[in-house]
Structure formats: C-alpha cells, structure tokens
C-alpha cells in the first residue's frame, strides 16, 4: 500500500539512529535500547515464522504418509470410508465440504449484500451508528452457541416442516453457517460500499438515476472487489467451521444426495474421529491429510484475495 | 439514458418514470425489510439464549462441580478453565504477535521473502481453527507426550491467535500517518522512542480492537480445545495445575448437549450458553469502552 513511503521512513529512522550513535551516556543507552528492541522484534518474527512453517510442514508430512497405504485415487474419489476395514475414501467429506460451502454462500451472499446496501446507503445515520457496532459484536459470538441454537431450535423446526425423521444434514448446517457468516460478510461489504467515492453517486443522481439504479449500476460494481473479498473471507470461515457444523450435520459418512440426509464434512469428520485413533495409524494419517487439504484450500483462497487486490490497485 | 427519456414522447416518459419510481420504492422497501428483519432475527436469537438461561443462574451453578450422573451439576471448573486458558494464551500471543507485527511494519526489508511471509501470516490468520488443534496434537500429545492438558490447549490457542495479532498490529501501525512519524524523527526521537511514544499510542485503537476480537474468539473456541485439552476437567475447583485436563465452557456446552447423559442436560446447556454469550459480549464491550471514551476525548 504505502511500501515505498514506509521504506523511506525506515531509512530515515536508521540514518538518524546511526548519526546519534556516540559511544557515551544517554545516546549510547538509547542506541543500545534501540538495538535490543529491534533484536527482540526480529526474534519474535522469526519465532512466528518457525511456528507457521512448522504447521505447514508437519501437517503436510503427516498427511502425505497416508499415500504409503492408500492410493491418491482411492483417497480422493472413493466413497467408501470404512477405517475399520482399511478403506479410506474421503470423497464424501470433500464433496460435503464443497456442497455445504456452496449452499451457504448461495443463501448468505444475497442477504449479506442487501444488508450491506441497507447499512451503507439506506439507513439514517443514527441507526447506522447503532447497527454497525451490533454487527461487530455478532461476529464474535462463539460458533458453539450457533450450533446449540441449530440443534435445539432449527432441527426440530426442520423436522416439523419437512416431515423427515432426522432433520440433520446439509440444509440445517447451511442455515446455521449462514447466520454465522452474515455479520462478517455484510460488515466488510458495508465498508467496501462506504468506500465508494461520493462523487460517483452524485454523478449518477445528477443524471437522473434513482437510488435503485445508482446502487445497482454504479455503487455495487464499484465496490465489486471489496464485496468479493468479503465473500471469500466468509467462504473461508464456512469451510473451516467445525463445532457448529458437527452439531447439526448428523456425522454419518454417506454421500449427501439430498439436503436433509445426515452426512459429514472434512472438519466434522476430523473432530469426531481424531480422539479415538492411535497416532501411528493410516486412519490418523488420513485425518491429517484431510486437515492438510483444508489448509491448502484456505491458503489458496487467501492467495486469490491477494491476487484480486493487486489487480484492483493496478486499475 | 436520461437524455433519451427527455426526448421521447410524454406518455412513455411518464410511464418509464413511474416504473422507475415503483422499482425504486420496491427496492428501498426490500432493503429495509431484509436488513431490519435479519438483524432483529439474529439479535432475537441471542436474546432468547440470554433470556432462557440467565434467570436460572445461581452461584452454585457457576462455581459448582459438574456431575456425570446426578442432576444439579455446575460448570465451575469449566468456567475457571475458560479464563485460565484464555489468559495464558493471551500472555503468550500478545507480546509475540505485537513484536512480530512491529517488525513487519517497521523493520522488515521490502523483499520477496518478507512478502511471502506476509501472505503466510495472512493465510494462517484465516485458516480453520481445527488445523491448529491438529498441530497441537502433534506437538503436545505426540512430541512432548503430555496428553490432553491445559497448557497444550492454551499454547495451541496462542498459535491460533498469533497470525491475527501480527496482522492487526502491522496494519494498525502502517495506518498511522507518515507525518506523525516524521515529526517524531524530526524532533530527534530514536526509532524505539518513535514506536513507543507515537506509533503504538496512535495505533492502539486498532490493536485493542484486534486483541478483543482474538480474546472473544479464544474464549468461545471449542475445536482446538477438544483436540488439545480434552473434554474433561480435573473435577476440582481452582486447579492451577497446567498439566490437568482443561475442558472449557464452550466445550462443556457441546459435551453436555451432545454426549452427556445427565437428566438435566438441557437446562445445563441453556445456562452454559447464556453464560458463554454474556461473557463474550462483556469481553467485547469492556475492551471497547476505553476506546469510545478515548475517541470522545480526542474529539
């Protein structure tokens, strides 16, 4: 963003520091503090680095061990997950994760964009000043609480409405996840819409555009990259959400060919099974490989965001 | 477009205009309804939780020991563990994360590796929390062989918080206007003095918002705790031993709701959920009140 400016400032800082580097008294002390502080910062940064890379490395290494016993074809495309029988096909969970995320985004995106438009364009300022902090608070509500709500309120409701016996499944999980990601997506989209320069709107209104036209033809296209960013962030959250999903998805390894059929996704399967397996078993390696898959998916999303931002800046 | 409207014969113009007005009104109405309804719906859900659980709370429940079979179990150890784990994880992650953030924003050279590192930090800030749980298992259960413990859970949580804190600090410090920094240098301030007296105070708003976000997340986090600290407590109140199992309140809520066989499980779950929501809201509010006061003073 302001990389050259800050680089110049850093240079300025160092040049000042070296110029005050006399070997006695207060100056020496200050220089010493400066150097120590910088050293501490460097050590911390290196430590953070080591942790981050060891997570990547350990997850990858443990996961890759799976392929000594199971072929990649079987792992990615077989639907037979029977660890007791040495069958490790994770297709059900991978498909479940993607289906759940897609369904969640399908419900959440339109509503979030409407809420964002509502917050940024339509509300009177006093209401906006109340609602924004409220939404910020909602972002912090623990996922387990949403899972609890889904389990106690939503699933009985779904049973009544649809007449199924269980009620668990993709639909219930997608609704719970939607409620969870709504505040995140709408707040970031709201910021993106607010950041659209006022002159765009003025120009549109001056041409006789109504609010509807201005919003859909001018403001939303201008805020597109910010809204995409919000969407991807929400998606990352939906993919990685564990406990809320565990409580409403049913945790049964069967392919989700219906919205109301109990199934399982990557995260829920990991958390339900990891406690019961010995560490040096193929089963455990397979679970770690599933975790590594999640890691790779979410890192790819972040790279995508970066890529989009760079493109946005260039334009 | 509007020029076209003006040139066309009147009847068309008016019908188009009224069509536009109708669309516009419909749109405004839709946005108001969806916006208000959704927000009221979500807030209503939270109120429902608080309303169901809060009136039934008692000191006995908050500090009492949980019971596997009999009615009337409390959440004391779980509640205590929640705070204990939260504090340990913050004590580890705040200094590390802030120092790394300061390094990235102030000292780091502008090269490819640092750019790569930034992407990594940003990536890990939004990686699913369960990954950190799996990492915690590898580190504490396998490598150190200490089993499911409070310290394992707390350190894994700290790792979960680290990237977020690093990123928040870096961005907050970068957002400080360059003029302020230059003014401090011009007055003869050293780099450390500039960071301590100018950059951090100005960026404090952003940093504290980040910390309270992280604290709320850590307090409610359950996947990491289940994997690294287990679903049981030591069964004793005020157990400061770092090596005892450390089930937290969020985990307890899940456990009671889905696994427990206690007859009053529903009531315990309702009350636990209320306590959980209440404390998370409190953490968010308490951290923000000084900021609001500060903002008012600055104005």
Automatic annotation (TrEMBL), chain A:
Q: How does it sit in the membrane?
A: Multi-pass membrane protein
Pfam families given in the database record = BPD_transp_1
InterPro entries, per database record = MetI-like (IPR000515), MetI-like_sf (IPR035906), Phosphate_PstC (IPR011864), Phosphate_Transport_Permease (IPR051124)
Biological process per Gene Ontology, one example term: phosphate ion transport
CDD domains recorded for this chain?
Answer: TM_PBP2
Parts of the chain that traverse the membrane: 36-59, 90-122, 134-158, 170-189, 227-250, 285-305
Q: Where is this protein found?
A: Cell membrane
Q: Which Gene3D superfamilies match?
A: MetI-like
Q: Give the ABC transmembrane type-1 domain ranges.
A: 94-305
Sorted alphabetically, the Gene Ontology cellular component annotations on this record are: plasma membrane
Q: Which GO terms describe its molecular function?
A: phosphate transmembrane transporter activity
Swiss-Prot/TrEMBL keywords: Cell membrane, Membrane, Phosphate transport, Transmembrane, Transmembrane helix, Transport
**Chief localization:** membrane
UniProt function note: Part of the binding-protein-dependent transport system for phosphate; probably responsible for the translocation of the substrate across the membrane.
Protein name, as recorded: Phosphate transport system permease protein
> Which organism is this protein's natural source?
Paenibacillus methanolicus
Automatic annotation (TrEMBL), chain B:
Q: Which InterPro entries does the UniProt entry name for this protein? A: MetI-like, MetI-like_sf, Phosphate_PstA
Q: Where in the cell is it found?
A: Cell membrane
Query: What membrane topology does this protein have?
Result: Multi-pass membrane protein
Just give the chief location class: membrane
Q: Where are the transmembrane segments?
A: 26-50, 83-104, 116-140, 146-165, 198-219, 273-293
Key word Transport present in the record?
A: yes
Q: Which SUPFAM superfamilies match?
A: MetI-like
Residues annotated as domain ABC transmembrane type-1: 79-287
What Gene Ontology molecular function terms does this protein carry?
phosphate transmembrane transporter activity
Q: Which Gene3D superfamilies match?
A: MetI-like (1.10.3720.10)
Q: Which GO terms describe its cellular component?
A: plasma membrane
Name the GO terms of the biological process aspect: phosphate ion transmembrane transport
Is-annotated flag, keyword Protease?
no
Q: Which Pfam families match?
A: BPD_transp_1 (PF00528)
Question: At the top level of its lineage, which domain of life is listed?
Answer: Bacteria
UniProt keyword annotations, A-Z: Cell membrane, Membrane, Transmembrane, Transmembrane helix, Transport
Q: Which NCBIfam families match?
A: 3a0107s02c (TIGR00974)
| Similarity comment: family membership | Belongs to the binding-protein-dependent transport system permease family. CysTW subfamily.
- State the name under which the record lists this protein: Phosphate transport system permease protein PstA
| Lineage of source species | Bacteria, Bacillati, Bacillota, Bacilli, Bacillales
């Amino acid at each position: 963003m302001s990389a050259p400016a800050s680089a110049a400032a850093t240079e300025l800082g160092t040049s000042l520091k070296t110029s005050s580097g006399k070997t006695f008294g207060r100056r020496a002390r200050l220089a010493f503090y400066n150097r120590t502080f910088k050293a501490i910062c460097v050590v911390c940064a290196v430590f953070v680095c080591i942790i981050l890379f060891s997570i990547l490395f350990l997850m990858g290494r443990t996961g890759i061990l799976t392929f000594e016993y199971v072929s990649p074809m079987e792992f990615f495309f077989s639907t037979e997950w029977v660890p007791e029988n040495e069958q490790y096909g994770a297709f059900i969970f991978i498909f479940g994760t993607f289906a759940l995320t897609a369904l969640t985004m399908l419900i959440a995106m339109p509503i979030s964009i409407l809420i964002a438009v509502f917050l940024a364009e339509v509300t009177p300022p006093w209401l906006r000043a109340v609602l924004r902090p409220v939404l910020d608070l909602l972002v912090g509500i623990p996922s387990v609480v949403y899972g609890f709500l889904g389990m106690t309120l939503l699933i009985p409701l779904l049973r009544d409405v649809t007449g199924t016996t269980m009620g668990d499944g993709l639909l219930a999980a997608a609704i719970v996840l939607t409620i969870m990601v709504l505040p995140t997506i709408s707040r970031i989209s709201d910021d993106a819409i607010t950041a659209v320069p006022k002159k765009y709107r003025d120009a549109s209104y001056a041409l006789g555009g109504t609010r509807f036209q201005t919003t859909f033809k001018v403001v939303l296209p201008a805020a597109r990259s910010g809204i995409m960013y919000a969407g991807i962030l929400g998606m990352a959250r939906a993919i990685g959400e564990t406990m809320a999903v565990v409580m409403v998805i049913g945790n049964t390894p069967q392919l989700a060919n219906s919205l109301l059929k109990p199934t399982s996704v990557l995260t829920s399967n990991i958390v339900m099974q990891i406690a019961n397996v010995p560490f040096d078993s193929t089963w455990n390696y397979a679970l770690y490989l599933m975790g590594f898959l999640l890691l790779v998916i979410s890192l790819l999303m972040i790279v995508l965001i970066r890529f989009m931002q760079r493109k946005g800046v260039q334009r | 477009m509007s020029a076209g409207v003006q040139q066309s014969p009147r009847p068309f113009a008016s019908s188009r205009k009224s069509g536009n007005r109708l669309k516009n009104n419909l749109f405004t109405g839709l946005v108001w309804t969806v916006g208000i309804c959704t927000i009221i719906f979500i807030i209503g859900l939270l109120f429902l939780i608080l309303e169901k659980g809060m009136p039934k709370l008692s000191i006995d429940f908050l500090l009492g020991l949980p019971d596997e079979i009999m009615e009337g179990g409390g959440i004391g150890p779980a509640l205590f563990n929640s705070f204990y784990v939260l504090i340990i994880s913050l004590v580890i992650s705040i200094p590390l994360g802030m120092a790394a953030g300061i390094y990235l924003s102030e000292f780091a050279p502008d090269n490819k590796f640092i750019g790569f590192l930034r992407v990594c930090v940003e990536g890990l800030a939004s990686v699913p929390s369960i990954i950190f749980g799996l990492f915690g298992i590898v580190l504490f259960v396998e490598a150190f062989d200490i089993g499911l413990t409070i310290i394992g859970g707390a350190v894994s949580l700290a790792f979960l918080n680290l990237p977020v804190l690093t990123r928040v600090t870096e961005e907050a410090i970068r957002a400080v206007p360059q003029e302020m920094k230059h003014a401090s240098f011009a007055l003869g301030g050293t780099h450390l003095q500039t960071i301590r007296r100018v950059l951090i105070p100005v960026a404090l708003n952003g940093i504290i918002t980040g910390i309270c976000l992280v604290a709320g997340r850590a307090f409610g986090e359950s996947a990491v705790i289940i994997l690294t600290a287990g679903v049981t407590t030591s069964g004793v109140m005020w157990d400061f031993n770092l090596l005892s199992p450390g089930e937290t309140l969020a985990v307890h809520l899940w456990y009671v709701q889905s696994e427990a066989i206690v007859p009053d499980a529903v009531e315990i779950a309702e009350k636990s959920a209320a306590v959980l929501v209440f404390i998370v809201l409190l953490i968010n509010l308490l951290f923000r009140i000084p900021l609001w006061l500060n903002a008012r003073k600055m104005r």
